[in-house]
Amino acid sequence: MNSYYDRPLLKGPHWGSNVVTYLFLGGIMGGLGLISLLSDDRPEPEMKKLRKTSRYTAFALAAINPPILISHLGRPERFLNMLRIVKLKSPMSLGVWGLVLYSGAAGANALRELADDGVVPKILRNVAPSATVPIQALLGAFMAGYTGVLISATAIPLWAAGKRHIPAFSVCSGAASASALATLLSTLQGNHEVIPRLERLEMAASALEIAFIADFRKRGGLATAPLFEGRVGKRLRNYTILGGIVIPFALNAIGGAVKLPKAVDALRSIAASTLTLIGGYVLRESLIEAGKISANDPQVAFRQPS
């Protein structure tokens, strides 16, 4: 079956770097919620430092991400209009509310840390009950998965084929990127004692991520070709699979197995974390670019199940 003069059957997305950045930071925010929960009420000094780092960073990203979304929407009132109602069957509506609620929980937990540090009056610590920590973690898991659900709930063949896989490896990538960012910041702060724990978390998340990506390639059929072949596929292999997962995994494994000089180990951690973050960004970028290519192929669109 052919389309009219082989013109595209679907209208492709006109998404640019602001959407890629929004999805990338949303995944990291989700992972930081988990790290904040894991480090909560731990007595070790290094875990207390990690708790502060994760909560301050999560709040900073929660403050940055809404303006990025607004830059995509074009006008601030479009963002505000989305808050007038809640559509339980709309990924976009639930995502916006998830972002707002996550930002509130992240802000409350950051306020607790500011009160503990003496930056604001101690009484403000009571504004945020301890329950906001698991709430932020739950909302974070939602945010990390929602970034995958958002693009897979469409008619774009590639994205529709990944309605199970894309949310799954988005969550894993978000956890790996959050661990990498926390490792990078902890290294720069001199909090070296916590780095092995973060790197183990990153390795576990990365292992699941590459497994889900490989399974998507195996089960996705012809619809996945734009993501794994051609220019986009080459970029995904070089920057995400190899540079963002395999090499950082090997570097982290070396750090766990071999006692290196402190300066060398710090450089190793910085390199592994930076590569993981680059790989996470390129994964989202590749998904968006491959989706545009997928939308332009009428043959794949006609083969989609109705």
Automatic annotation (TrEMBL):
Keywords: Cell membrane, Membrane, Transmembrane, Transmembrane helix. It is a multi-pass membrane protein. Belongs to the NrfD family. It is found in: Cell membrane. The chain crosses the membrane at residues 20-38, 58-74, 133-160, 166-188, 239-260. It holds the Pfam family NrfD. GO terms for cellular component: plasma membrane. This is Putative Polysulphide reductase, NrfD. InterPro entries: Electron_transfer_protein, NrfD-like.
